[in-house]
Amino acid sequence: MTRLSPPANTIDKKTGLNAGHQLIVCDLDGTLISRDHKLNTADIDALAAAREAGITVSICTGRSIGEALDIIKPLNLSGPGVFITGAAICDLATGATLHRQAIDPVVVRELITFFGDLGHAVLLLVDAPENPGPRYIMTQHGPVHAASEEWFLRNRMAAQIVEYPDDHTLACVLRLGIVVDLPQSADITAQLTQRFESRIKFLALRAPAFECHVIEVFAQHVDKWTGIQRLCALLNIDSSLAVPIGDDVNDLPMLRHATLSFAMGNAAPEIQRAAKHVTRSQSQAGVAAAVEAVLTGKLRHERGPVHL
Questions:
Q1: Does this model's pTM top 0.85?
Q2: What angle do CA 198, 65, 101 make, to 5 degrees?
C-alpha cells in the first residue's frame, strides 16, 4: 500500500470535499471484523499507515467497550472511541468511559413494561458514573433468545438476571433492547414508533443466522454521527474532516452526514446508497482500500455512491 502524507486541510471549491482529512472512524462488525472476530492484516497495515501520515484513527461501533477491547488490540489505538452506537465515548487504551448518554429513567420504566408485557426478556446495558464500565442486566419477563445466548458466549460476556432493576440502575441505562423473531418485528416496531418515537431513538438490526431482529433503544439524540461529532470535539477536529466506514443500519447517520464516507461492499444496497463511496467487502480488506483512497487523494465526487 502507498504511504503518503495527507494533503493540506483545505476545501475543494469544485467538489466541496475536504482535501485533507484528519480522522478515520471504522465500524467493527462487518467492516473491520467478520463473524469470527478476525482482523485482516491489510486493514491493520492500512490504518497504521494512516496514523503514520498524521491521520487519527478511531472506532465507532454498536458494541460496548468491553465487547471490543480484545478485538481492537492489534490496532494499537489510543485516545477516545465511539461505543454503544454513540451512547458512550470511551478510552481505547484503558476502557474508561469519558462520556455517557443515558435514557430518561421514566422512559426506561415504560419500555420495560411495554416489552415485558409482550413476553420478552429485556436486556439493559448499564454504565454508572461511580462504577464505570458497561454491564448487562436482563429482566425475567420472558425466555432468553438463542441469538442473545450466542452473543454472550462468543463475546465472553454475562448478564445479571433480575426481576426488576432498582431505581439507580434505571437512571444509568445507555441501551435497552429485546431480540424478536422476524414475523414479530414489524408489529413491535410499529407500536414502538407510535408510543415512543418523540422520546427515543431505536434500531432494528437483523441477525441473519437466527432470522431475528435485535431491537435497540437509545436516548433521543443518540446515533453514530452525533457520537462522531462528540468524538471530534474531544479531539479538537472539525467533524467535516472525519471519514466514517461502515456497513449496517446503525451506520446510516454517519455515512449520510459525513463529507466523505465509505460503505462496505458487503453492505446492503440501501446502506451503500447512503455513502459517498463504496469500497470492497470486509473479506477483501475493504477498509484498506478506503484508507488508501483517502491517503492518495484518488477520489471522485459524483451523484450517488462511487465504487472503488
A1: yes
A2: 30
- 100 backbone dihedrals φ, ψ, rounded to 5°: -140, 145
Strand order of the β-sheet with 88-91 is: 80-83, 88-91, 97-100
The bridge status of strand 159-162 relative to strand 200-207 is unpaired
pLDDT, residue 304, reads: 56
State which CATH number among 3.30.1240.10, 3.30.420.10, 3.90.1640.10, 3.40.50.300 fits the domain covering 105-219: 3.30.1240.10
Contact (Cβ atoms closer than 8 angstroms) between residue 225 and residue 242: no
Tens digit of each residue's pLDDT (9 = 90 or more) over 242-300 = 999 999 999 999 999 999 999 999 999 999 999 999 999 999 999 999 999 999 887 75
Residue 59 neighbours by CB distance under 10 Å: 24
CA distance linking residue 280 with residue 273, whole number of Å: 14
In this predicted structure, the answer to whether residue 305 has a pLDDT above a threshold of 70 is: no
Q: How many CB atoms lie within 10 A of CB 63?
A: 20
Q: Which residues pair with 103 in a beta bridge?
A: none
Q: Could you tell me the end-to-end alpha-carbon distance of the chain, in angstroms, rounded to an integer?
A: 15
* Single-letter amino acid code for the residue at 177: G
pLDDT of residue 9: 43
Tell me how far CA of residue 235 lies from CA of 7, 75, 231, in angstroms. 19, 19, 6
pLDDT digits (tens, 9 = 90+) for 144-200: 899 898 888 888 888 999 999 999 999 999 999 999 999 999 999 999 999 998 999
| Domain 23-100+223-307, architecture per CATH | 3-Layer(aba) Sandwich (3.40)
